[in-house]
Specification:
The chain is of the alpha/beta class. It has 15 helices and five strands. The protein folds into four domains: about 90 residues, Conserved hypothetical protein from pyrococcus furiosus pfu- 392566-001, ParB domain; about 60 residues; about 60 residues; about 30 residues, no CATH class. The chain is about 60% helix and about 10% strand. A hairpin with a 2-residue loop joins strand 3 and strand 4. The longest helix has 29 residues.
């Protein structure tokens, strides 16, 4: 085992300085590293240094990155030789699951979620119910994400990885047959279509009655003859009052609280794996003071008027 890996395994609970060359990126295909994001990370490293450790696990004689692909790319561009790494105990399946867990709060794109599901299903042989259990998702969600990436042309996915096509635009292209997606993505990239414009373009292609009309429409979009804007005035939105927003937020809290309660009662946290269970437990513990403050605020604002303390200035104004 190489010296960097040995040093990490000797102190698995603490951050270690590890040579960048010792970090593998076998799991990089599950994440997007768009050029703009890497440049922003490079600027951050140059100005502030490394603020958070790269998360990695030992695989054979190498350290494989779980979280921190952009940090590693940016550090290489800056000519750094070492980075701070936080090792964790995991196998290939556990590491793939941890990518989803570590980014649960920050959010993954639908494509990244689909790549994770496909890796667990195709590469590691897990069943869809087993994946749903590992990711704390419903089986239908797993099925939708798997269908999404398997319905998307490989070339289109490559363009997403290169930052040429946005993930949401790529998702819109899945409404077309795989054989037509690459040509349509050519137009989207060349014309710089927005997600909404891409959706309009795809909808028009799907509405064509035959191949001749479809080819003619495609050519008009490709040549710029059709202005890539949404026709008509944007739909007007009803003005919502403060009470409307408040009631909507309260209803959302009810739904989220019920969903969290069901998931917590469905299985013990350790069923998610030791490292993921620890991460979930820390997130839940951080939620407790927030809920406590909210409870105090609710009690204060819903108390009967005669129980509320009135400030001296307010008493004076009332008397006047």
């Amino acid at each position: 085992m190489c010296g960097a890996v040995a040093a990490v395994t000797q102190a698995a609970d603490s951050d270690q300085s590890v040579a960048i060359g010792a970090l593998g990126d076998r799991l990089a295909g599950l994440r997007l590293c768009e050029p703009d994001a890497v440049e922003a990370m490079q600027a951050s490293l140059r100005r502030y240094g490394q603020l958070s450790a790269v998360v990695a696990f030992v695989r054979g004689d190498a350290l494989e990155i779980i979280d921190g692909f952009k940090r590693v790319q940016a550090a290489r561009r800056l000519g750094w030789s070492e980075l701070r790494v936080r090792p964790c105990t995991a196998d290939d399946v556990g590491a793939t699951v941890q990518i989803a867990a570590l980014h649960a709060g920050r959010g993954l794109t639908e494509l990244e979620e689909g790549w994770i599901v496909r890796a667990l299903y195709r590469d590691h042989g897990l069943s869809q119910p087993a994946i749903a259990e590992r990711l704390a998702r419903h089986k239908s969600w797993v099925c939708r994400r798997l269908l999404l990436v398997e319905a998307l042309d490989a070339e289109v996915q490559a363009r997403v990885r290169l930052g040429l096509l946005s993930p949401r635009a790529a998702v819109a292209l899945t409404a077309l047959p795989r054989g037509n997606q690459e040509a349509a993505s050519d137009v989207v990239v060349r014309r710089g279509l927005t997600v909404r414009q891409t959706e309009t373009f795809v909808a028009q292609l799907r509405d064509c009655a035959d191949d001749a009309l479809r080819s003619a429409l495609h050519a008009r979009w490709a040549s710029g003859e059709l202005v890539p804007t949404i026709p008509g005035r944007p739909p007007s939105r009803a003005v919502r009052s403060d009470a409307d927003w408040l009631l909507s937020d309260v209803a959302a809290l009810h739904r989220i609280a019920a969903r969290v309660q069901v998931r917590l009662m469905a299985a013990p946290l350790l069923a998610l794996g030791p490292s993921v269970a620890q991460l979930v437990a820390e997130s839940l513990e951080s939620l407790a003071p927030v809920l406590a403050v909210l409870q105090r605020t609710i009690t204060r604002v819903t108390s009967p008027p005669d129980r509320l303390e009135v400030e001296p200035d307010e008493r004076k104004e009332s008397a006047e």
